[in-house]
Amino acid sequence: MNSPEPIQSSELYEKHSVVHNKRIDGPFRRFKWAIMAITLTIYYVTPWLRWDRGPYAPDQAVLVDLANRRFYMFGIEIWPHEFYFVAGLLIMAGIGLFLVTSAVGRAWCGYACPQTVWTDLFQHIDRLFDGDRNARIRLDKAPWTWSKVFRRGAKWSVYLLIAFLTGGAWILYFADAPTLFRQFFAGEAAPVAYGTVAILTATTFALGGFLREQVCIYMCPWPRIQTAMLDEKSLIVTYKDWRGEPRGSVKKAQKNPGEFGDCIDCMQCVQVCPTGIDIREGPQIGCITCALCIDACDKVMKDIGRPRGLIDYATLDDCEHEAAGGEPKPVIKTLLRPRTLVYLGVWSSIGLALLFALGVRSHTDLTVSPDRNPPFMLMSDGSVRNAYTLKLRNMESRPREMEVALVGLEDAVFWTDSIGRSDAARSQTIEVPADATQPVRAYVLAPQGTEGQTFAFTLTSLDEQGESDRAETLFTAAGE
Ligand code: SF4
Ligand code: SF4
């Protein structure tokens, strides 16, 4: 019996070759510059923005306050029991990605994904230190001289600095930024802060500096999901082979008129590609639709006096239509199609529902838990006492006087740990600190003969808002 042939490692893994993409200018490149500037500014600057919430709440505009279990975003404060707002935002982000993919293909990957933005940034650092594509290829192949060691060392130090700033900025979203910044460099921050920065520095350094397009092609699941979401009506970056083929240089085309297509096989589209692919081989998972090849090819077409758009954003339907001699369709028709409109409708409905819920939500909340053991106490005069733990929540960033009252359970009165039995009444006024949940022990006393029944506590803010909440509970009587 023959034993199976051993598998060669070369059959399992494609050999990695470093992508040295060429500098290009054009409308899509400038658009990418703008998106990069906006996203990086938002990421690094946001933790330093202040937002006045009065003396009782943090003044950081965007803050995930893990210690106090709050999420602040400008004028919005989300409490743990309101996690549905965060869930709603995550659902909106997911549907937003579906919407963008359905309308303009992998635009997220090409322009705004953090991996794309940081890789783009690191590729510009490469150009700054080592020059454009050809110089970088030469340097890569050159032996390790002191000059190369120095240049590599300097470049990797800048990588490391960017990676450190990236990790450093992340932790500032979880505590008061100026305070944590001081503590971090004074060695007084929590170990978890140093650990998080170390991990994020290492991952940014590795993913943005070295792994780059391999993350998009091999590691990220999103390209696979997107491929399933694209259809023949989605915009993708396409090479119009019916126009470009057969390829031939300008000279050949001049010598043999009518025999060659518009592609002069100059390889500019491949050389500018950040993932190093050849779009002329058709749509592929490595194409992040950054459109830099469109800029490159349009420039070539302009230089040789042929119409732009040999590589362009187009749908597969448009390609068939154009290949058959039809006119290109207006982009707006491609964008406004039923599937995209359905996504837009669902996305906006969730957004409006969240805004409505945010607008009408109460800043007052009451929960009640009756004591289970013992469920009641029989007093010497025959009256019955039940004890409860109330939680009075004040979600305003100022202390508020609140009235707690009994509804039902006739002739009963209550007092608390801080309001003595001598002041027992059917309603009590309690001050609840700003932005806090105040636990209160309440002792409800009902006269002899009162039967077990359901009743309610109400909580009403004694201010111009007059917000209220109500919680039903059970009164347990003797003999039950
Ligand atoms: S840039 Fe345009 S002309 Fe040059 S190889 Fe690419 S598709 Fe052909
Ligand atoms: S093929 Fe073109 S659009 Fe796709 S990743 Fe490369 S440069 Fe960007």
Total separate domains:
3
Which band does the percent of strand residues land in? Answer: 15-25%
Average of pLDDT? 92
Question: How many β-strands, per DSSP?
Answer: 14
Tell me the number of helical segments per DSSP (H or I, 4 or more residues long). Answer: 18
- Characterize the biggest β-sheet: 5 strands, antiparallel
Which structural class matches the secondary elements?
A: alpha+beta
Kindly report how far apart the N and C termini lie.
82 Å
Low-confidence stretches: 1-5
Shape: elongated
- Unique ligands: iron/sulfur cluster
Q: Helicity level, as a percent range?
A: 40-55%
Radius of gyration: 33 Å
GO molecular function, one term: metal ion binding
Pfam family, one: FixG_C
Keywords: 4Fe-4S, Electron transport, Iron, Iron-sulfur, Membrane, Metal-binding, Transmembrane, Transmembrane helix, Transport
Protein name: Cytochrome c oxidase accessory protein FixG
How would you portray this structure in words?
The chain is of the alpha+beta class and about 475 residues long. The chain has 3 domains: about 15-220, no CATH class; about 230-330, no CATH class; about 365-475, Immunoglobulins (Immunoglobulin-like). It contains 18 helices and 14 strands. The strands form 4 sheets. Strands 6, 7, 8, 10 and 12 form a 5-stranded antiparallel sheet that branches. The protein has a 4-stranded antiparallel sheet with strand order 11-9-13-14, with no helix packed on it. α3 (about 85-105) runs antiparallel to α18 (about 340-360), α5 (about 115-130) packs antiparallel against α7 and α7 (about 145-170) packs across α9. The protein is elongated, with a radius of gyration of 33 Å. The structure holds iron/sulfur cluster (2 copies). One iron/sulfur cluster (SF4) binds near residues 237, 272, 288, 290 and 291. GO terms for molecular function: 4 iron, 4 sulfur cluster binding; metal ion binding. This is Cytochrome c oxidase accessory protein FixG. Keywords: 4Fe-4S, Electron transport, Iron, Iron-sulfur, Membrane, Metal-binding, Transmembrane, Transmembrane helix, Transport. Pfam families: Fer4_18, Fer4_5, FixG_C. InterPro entries: 4Fe4S_Fe-S-bd, 4Fe4S_Fe_S_CS, Cyt_c_oxidase_cbb3_FixG, Electron_Trans/Redox, FixG_C, Helical_ferredxn, Ig-like_fold.
